[in-house]
Write a structure and sequence with these properties.
The structure is a single chain. α1 packs antiparallel against α2. With 52 residues, this protein is mostly helical. The chain is globular, with a radius of gyration of 13 Å.
């Protein structure tokens, strides 16, 4: 499986995991030890640009 295909597979899985979340679940970091989902989604999306 090519790297780009793997990325899209992981991205689809991430979206499925987050599908039950509410808008409020994407707010800024609530505590030092926990990053909100938007942080992870944003960073993996940003890093995907390296694949192109």
């Amino acid at each position: 499986m090519e790297l780009l295909d793997r990325y899209f597979k992981v991205r689809k899985h991430t979206e499925a995991i987050c599908s039950h979340l509410q808008t409020e679940d994407y707010v800024v970091q609530p505590v030092v030890d926990v990053s909100p989902p938007k942080w992870h989604i944003g960073h993996t999306t940003g890093f995907s640009r390296l694949l192109y």
